[in-house]
Amino acid sequence: MSSQVIAFAVWGNPAYWRLANYKSNGEGVKSFSTLEILSQVEKPKKVILIVSDTLALEAPDKITSYDDVVEKARSYAERYVCSHLDEFEIKVLPGVIRKNKGDAVYVFKADMDDFRSLALYEIYMQSIREDRPLELTLDISHGINYMPTLTYDSFREAAALYSVSRIQRTKIRVYQADPYPILQKETEEKLMRDKSNPCTPKSQDAHPPDVAYNLLLEENVYPWEVTRYIGFQKQKVKQTLNDVRNFPEHESVKSLIEELSLPLIGAYRLGAIVQLALLAKPALAAEGASASASGGSINPGQSDSCAPKANWSLKDIEVFLKRSIEEWRKGREPFEDGNEIIVESKNKFAPGFRALLQTHAILSGIKSLISTSELEMVTLTELKNLKKLYQGSKVVTHLLDREIEKLDFLKGKILEAWTPYYKYRKGVQSPVKKCDPIFKRDFIAHAGFHDEVIEVRKFNSEIQIRVRGGYWCCLKDILEDAVTT
């Protein structure tokens, strides 16, 4: 299936941009922004503009609410698009400014990590909505201050999330135009937008300067790159928002992150694909079902209180992400302080927000590689499929090949009854105590294929693997430690 392109672009205030002849590969496009040259070069299916909520101050009337802020900023930016785009959206993210307007002073304040978190969410969610494989592009020509840097950072991470969610290499490209040249004042004036028609210059006989449109970066992003962004401080990792006093869903979010996100992300980071599969299967089986209807241990016969439970699904993750954003927006309502009208986030995004996005991406990738007909076990064939998640890491791929080859080698000896793995490997149980440092070292060194942790059987010519009863509590601690500091 051929790929299509989705393009993202950051904008400052477009009102004062001048007409230019943007040039790429010898072809030129006369425009007030790089959108048309981007469209000509990339032919994207869709373009998403990322703008600051401070653009709302350009509207003539008073701001009444944060919904009003977002709508005013979106409408203002849309007026200056001036490009023939088949499909585009405008996303409004938090900005910083202090500006007089009438008798009031408007003060917009924002935590820059909030901007980054929202940009990450928007880029990733926009990408996974498309059925066909994607190439992702970013234009940072017009962003101001922090916008290009933070959006680029979020763009790279979102591309990695998209790659693991689709189990594919994703091509990305980043563009930026040269700085607009310094011209004589009279010439600059002619090239400014006409106030009555912002898509045309003040003078029709104006001759715009040539401005080069540059491809800054073109490279492939692989699923394994998600691990570059894994690592959370324990203090806030189980929260999507710093202040949860008015967030009714907080306890549910905390449980989801505790029971699913942290061990799942940790298993992925360590290459522990047996545990990764067994953590993912209940969540994938629960998709579309309510937590109350799908709860319970997946392997009650083993009497393991920490065994994965079918309490959470991809849908739950999406709901909690949206609810966290809604709660954050509630805390950005304008309020008056003397002659100042302040727009300031009273809440901030916590690391759990990114952890949920990573969980969503990893689960989405696993979904296409394993079956949910048997939740308490994983087959050797499924484990071989799960290696695709590790495109981009020769080290982890080699480690998994080694452990899978050991099981393949034993295939003729494995019995139909569940048997601890160590009986096939060395015949006797190790004297190492469960969960002590040596046990942890061996578990990590063997990518979760610890002799004592797993048990195997042969069923219909297929090798099945599961975690032995009583080990899940210990393993979840190890997996959580792999992603928290």
Give the overall silhouette. Answer: elongated
Average predicted confidence as pLDDT: 92
Report strand order across the widest sheet.
3-2-12-9-8-1-4-5
Structural class: alpha/beta
Structural overview:
By secondary structure, the chain is of the alpha/beta class. A hairpin with a 2-residue loop joins β17 (454-459) and β18. The chain has helices at residues 35-42, 66-79, 112-128, 147-166, 185-191, 250-270, 273-285, 291-294, 314-330, 351-367, 380-386, 394-409, 422-425, 437-445, 472-481, and strands spanning 4-11, 20-24, 27-31, 46-52, 88-93, 97-101, 104-109, 134-142, 170-177, 193-194, 197-201, 210-221, 335-337, 340-344, 378-379, 419-420, 454-459, 462-467. It is elongated. α4 (147-166) runs parallel beside α10 (351-367). The chain starts with a strand and ends with a helix. The protein is 38% helix and 21% strand. The protein contains 15 helices and 18 strands. Mean pLDDT is 92; it is low at 290-301. The longest helix has 21 residues, at 250-270. The strands form four sheets. An eight-stranded mixed sheet has the order 3-2-12-9-8-1-4-5, sandwiched between helices.
